[in-house]
Amino acid sequence: MDLPAALYLPEDGVFLATELTIGPWDPAFQHAGPPAALLAREVERAGRIPAGQTVRLAYDILGPVPVGPVRVTARLLRPGQRIELVEAELTADGADRPLMRLTAWRMRVREAAGTPEPAPALPDPQRSRPETADFFTTDVAYHRALEWRFAHGSFNAPGPAAAWTRPLCALVDGEPMTPLQHLLVMTDAASGVSAVLDWTRATFANVDLSVALVRPPAGEWLGLDAATTLGPSGAGQCFADLYDAAGRIGRSTQSLFVEPR
Q1: CA distances in angstroms from 84 to 46, 125, 154, listed in the order given
Q2: Which pLDDT tens digit goes with each residue over 32-84?
Q3: What's the rounded Cα separation, in Å, for the pair 199 and 202?
Q4: CA distance 166 to 170
Q5: Sign for the pseudo-dihedral over CA of 63, 67, 73, 77
Q6: Is the distance from CB of 223 to CB of 164 less than 8 angstroms?
Q7: Closest CA to 33 of 151, 234, 191, 214
Q8: Which of 175, 154, 172, 176 shows the shortest CA–CA distance to 163?
Q9: What number of other Cβ atoms are within 10 A of residue 11's Cβ?
């Protein structure tokens, strides 16, 4: 199967989304993972702390992002030599408001004694099960951007699940996908990996994504261990522990809007 080499092609000040950004709800709209990573890239480019680490990323998903050209901008909200807050926005032609917004705290890096973290309580990627999602409406879509290996659970069955991923493409054509970018491409899928409802009968789209990191992700393989809980009034939450090969690196949360299709 011939796949695009990247999620986005840079072109005259915009980023042209390829088919690898297509989400599961409508082939005209992107999965939120790729634009989340694109915004994280912009935040790190706008930051002023040399080699700083991004420790919290809070996304608001203000509208569906079309599969087409998008623009990203960033500004420093709170400058500092040790701590800074950066805001980034994603827009598209024809939209009357930003479609995604990110605020990210970044900090200086220094040598320090860290709290020991246990190794991932998951089988490593080589002992996990390869799987492809079967609920996407097009064969070339977001699920082809990463290699997925499930330690437990499944894309295609309800309930909690844990999976390792590695990139099969670049985020932006001509650039290697960094571990942080990879983490954001992957992490928005936590609520899909751990879905508890039938994709054909219910919508459970997330309106936000928050990622808190104790250290930067590293290495080729990153993982998530996710569970979704539904409340009695049409809302849900997805929580995931995030890993690299050395251990847990942080957690993510997503708020879900749930209704019948």
Answers
A1: 11, 35, 39
A2: 999 999 999 999 999 999 889 999 999 999 999 999 999 999 999 999 899 99
A3: 6
A4: 11
A5: positive
A6: yes
A7: 191
A8: 154
A9: 10
Domain boundaries 6-108+123-260, corresponding CATH code: 2.40.160.210
Residues whose CB is less than 8 angstroms from the CB of residue 20 and which lie 6 or more positions away in sequence, other chains included: 3, 4, 6, 7, 34, 140, 141, 142, 144, 145, 169
pTM: 0.95
**One-letter amino acid for residue 189 of the chain:** A
Length of the chain: 261
pLDDT in tens, the chain (261 residues): 789 999 999 998 899 999 999 999 899 999 999 999 999 999 999 999 988 999 999 999 999 999 999 999 999 999 989 999 999 999 998 778 999 999 999 999 877 767 777 667 788 999 999 999 988 889 999 999 999 999 999 999 999 999 999 999 999 999 999 999 999 999 999 999 999 998 888 889 999 999 999 999 999 999 999 999 999 998 999 999 999 999 999 999 999 999 998
Report how far residue 131's alpha carbon sits from residue 177's, in angstroms, rounded to the nearest whole number: 22
Six-digit token pair at 199? Answer: 């994709």
Upper half-sphere CA count for residue 156 (Cβ side, 13 Å): 11
DSSP characters over 109-178: ----PPPP-PPPSS--GGGSEE---S--SSSSSGGGSEEEEEEES-TTSSS-EEEEEEESSEEETTSPPP
Tell me the residue type at 78.
R
